[in-house]
Design a protein that fits this description.
CATH superfamily of the largest domain: Vaccinia Virus protein VP39
Strand content: 15-25%
Number of strands: 9
Helix content: 25-40%
CATH class of the largest domain: Alpha Beta
Bound molecules: S-adenosylmethionine
Distance between the termini: 62 Å
Strand order of the largest sheet: 5-4-3-6-7-9-8
Radius of gyration: 22 Å
CATH topology of the largest domain: Rossmann fold
Structural class: alpha/beta
């Protein structure tokens, strides 16, 4: 049984899309009074009850799920549902009680539960999580599905099966590692401007035994263009869940996100398109012919991206917008087409 965020979309232990969400007073650190550790013996179920009530009193979100995931983790399972029968009503050792208090106190400070238990599930992978590296969200699993479906379709129609994928902004490695796990022929290059993300992707790749088909680079796509172009091409698939929040929405983030996750993973500039524009500008130089770009974006973005690409990026064709399971336009697919220059060159060569 896999750990899932409670709500769909980004409404998970603090979220970033779906519009700004006000949180009164989130800039102030809460007073973290912690319930006293009971003197006598207690069961896991009783400990969960104490902490659930305390979280509710202190305004911590997702109280039930937070308690459940912390207790399950400490008892060696992913979810309380998958624990052995009777485990929840057994008395906890003193050491376990202290661990419950330690982890729940972290959650009380509004640390996301994924950082508290230091791991999370993404598709069929369990990934190590470390602050401030971005916690993968459920809709990104849909982005991976889009890429997989297209690549599997190509393989099914006898197309090329030797693909190389580039991921811009790999975070914990969720996207690249999922693709590598599902496609044994695939090779991937993952890059991020954050050293902690590069390290975490490497750690997750090694833990999952997927490091032999993955190259990881510490590259800032806004600045290290020459390095990027020399190391990362030709590529048949460019995938990215870039920072895409509008800067003005940053102030409305849940405390879990605002205090603990890297702002550079979220803030996409004034219109949320700063990194996206750079990716699209570089794409024709990075992609092989008919190579595709798959982007996760804010629902307001597809209508801005399409005309911008048509006006500014020669050789890149906006193919389609895809919606997430809640019906919001969240994914853009573009394809490299021969530019005028290429066509003229071909004609010139033929003559
Ligand atoms: C929204 S997170 C996505 C992380 C991961 N792909 C996922 O879906 O869980 C965006 C990532 O892009 C990285 N990033 C932001 N600006 C970047 C830039 N200019 N160059 C490279 N990476 C960048 C951040 O460090 C962060 O890890």
């Amino acid at each position: 049984m896999w750990r899932r965020s409670v709500a769909t979309g980004y409404m998970c232990f603090g979220c970033r899309s779906g519009g700004p969400k006000g949180f009164p007073g989130f800039h102030a650190m809460p007073s973290c009074s912690v319930p006293a550790i009971p003197a006598g013996k207690i069961t896991a179920l009783q400990a969960m009850g104490i902490w659930r009530r305390h979280f509710e009193k202190r305004g911590v979100t997702e109280t039930e799920h937070s308690c459940n995931y912390i207790i399950a983790h400490l008892l060696g399972a992913k979810t309380v549902e998958s624990l052995e029968r009777g485990k929840l009503t057994e008395f906890l050792s003193r050491e376990k009680v202290e661990q419950v208090w330690k982890l729940c106190t972290r959650r009380l400070s509004r640390m996301p539960v994924q950082y508290v238990i230091e791991e999370w599930d993404f598709r069929d992978l369990t990934l190590k999580m470390k602050p401030p590296v971005f916690i993968p969200r459920p809709e990104t699993e849909e982005l991976v599905d889009l890429v997989l479906t297209d690549l599997q379709k190509k393989a099914g129609t006898g197309g090329d099966t030797q693909h190389t994928c580039l991921e811009v902004g790999c975070g914990s490695g969720a996207i690249s590692l999922s693709l590598l796990k599902s496609l044994p022929q695939l090779k991937a290059i993952a890059l991020d401007k954050c050293q902690a993300a590069v390290n975490l992707t490497m750690e997750n790749a090694l833990r999952l035994g997927l490091d032999d088909r993955l190259q990881i680079y510490h590259i800032d796509v806004m600045k290290d263009v020459e390095t990027l172009l020399s190391l990362c091409r030709p590529i048949s698939v460019l995938v990215s869940n870039p920072p895409y929040l509008f800067s003005e929405d940053m102030a409305s983030l849940e405390p879990e996100v605002f205090r603990f996750e890297d702002h550079a993973a979220l803030d996409g500039g004034k219109d949320g398109l700063q990194v996206i524009r750079q990716i699209l500008t570089l794409s024709p130089q990075i992609l092989s012919n008919h190579g595709r770009v798959y982007l996760e974006v804010d629902p307001r973005h597809p209508l801005l991206i399409q005309p911008w690409v048509e006006a500014h990026v020669e050789g890149l064709h906006y193919m389609e917008t895809r919606h997430d399971i809640t019906g919001r336009p969240r994914f853009c697919i573009l394809q490299k087409e021969k530019s005028l220059g290429d066509r003229e060159l071909c004609l010139g060569l033929r003559n």
